[in-house]
Write a structure and sequence with these properties.
Layout: E1 9-13, H1 16-25, E2 32-36, H2 41-51, E3 59-68, E4 78-80, E5 84-86, H3 94-100, E6 106-108, H4 111-121, E7 124-133, H5 141-147, H6 154-163, H7 167-195
Parallel strand pairs: 1-2, 1-3, 3-7, 5-6
Antiparallel strand pairs: 3-6, 4-7
Helix pairs in contact: 1-7, 2-4
Length: 207
C-alpha cells in the first residue's frame, strides 16, 4: 500500500473495480495515494491505520460504491458524508433499504470505520460514494453470496448460473451499474483532490 506525500490525499476503496478509473486518472500524481482495503469494516480499519502512518495525509477519503436508500438517487449519482450509513452486510432487500432510508440516503460497508480511525488521529475525512444499485433493486441470495467476499470466483459464478440461469440478467445489470458508478466516482474524486491543496475539507462524523 503506497502513501501520499505529507499533506497529500489518501483515497481508500474496498475493491479494485471501484478504484480502477480513478487510479488511471491520477497516475503519476505523488500527492494522491490510492489504496484497496477489501470489503467490510475490519479491513477498512486496518487499511486506514496503515495509511495514517508517517507521512500523514492531509485528507482521507472513503470511496467506492453504495446502495441508494431513497428513490431520488439513481445509478451513477454521487453521495457524500454524512448522508451515508455503514452496515455489516450487503443490503439486498428493497424493504430494508427503505427502512434505512428513513434516516440516510445511501449505504456502504466501510466508511464509518475509516472515519473513526481518522477522528482518533485528528485527520480530515470525507466519504464519497457512487450509487451502483437503486432503492428498488433487489439482489437474489445466490448473487449476494457470490458478492459477499468482494471478488467473484468465475468457477463459482458458472456453477451458480448452471443452477439458476436467470442470474445472468442480474450479473449484467450489476456490471453495467458498477461500471457507470466507477466512472462517475472517478470524476467526482478528481475534482476533490484537485482542490484539496487550497480548500479546507469538511470533517465528517462516523455513519
Amino acid at each position: 500500500m503506497s502513501a501520499p506525500r505529507e499533506g497529500g490525499v489518501a483515497v481508500l476503496f474496498a475493491l479494485e473495480r471501484e478504484a480502477a478509473p480513478f487510479r488511471r486518472a491520477v497516475r503519476g500524481q505523488k500527492h494522491v495515494a490510492v489504496c484497496v482495503s477489501g470489503m467490510g469494516r475490519a479491513r477498512a480499519r486496518r487499511a486506514a491505520e496503515q495509511i495514517l502512518r508517517d507521512p500523514v495525509p492531509r485528507l482521507v477519503i472513503a470511496a467506492g460504491f453504495c446502495g441508494a436508500l431513497v428513490p431520488a438517487l439513481r445509478v451513477g449519482d454521487v453521495v457524500t458524508s454524512p448522508r451515508i450509513i455503514t452496515v455489516d452486510h450487503l443490503v439486498t432487500d428493497p424493504a430494508e433499504k427503505r427502512r434505512l432510508g428513513e434516516t440516510h440516503d445511501a449505504v456502504d460497508m466501510e466508511s464509518s470505520a475509516i472515519a473513526e480511525v481518522c477522528a482518533g488521529r485528528g485527520v480530515a475525512f470525507r466519504a464519497v460514494r457512487a450509487v451502483s444499485d437503486t432503492v428498488d433493486t433487489a439482489l437474489s441470495p445466490e448473487l449476494a453470496r457470490l458478492l459477499s467476499g468482494g471478488n467473484v470466483s468465475p468457477l463459482k459464478a458458472c456453477y451458480a448460473l448452471c443452477f439458476k440461469p436467470s442470474l445472468l440478467g442480474e450479473f449484467l445489470r450489476l456490471a453495467r451499474g458498477t461500471k457507470l458508478a466507477a466512472r462517475a466516482l472517478a470524476v467526482a474524486l478528481e475534482g476533490i483532490v484537485s482542490t484539496s491543496a487550497t480548500a479546507a475539507p469538511a470533517t465528517a462524523s462516523p455513519g
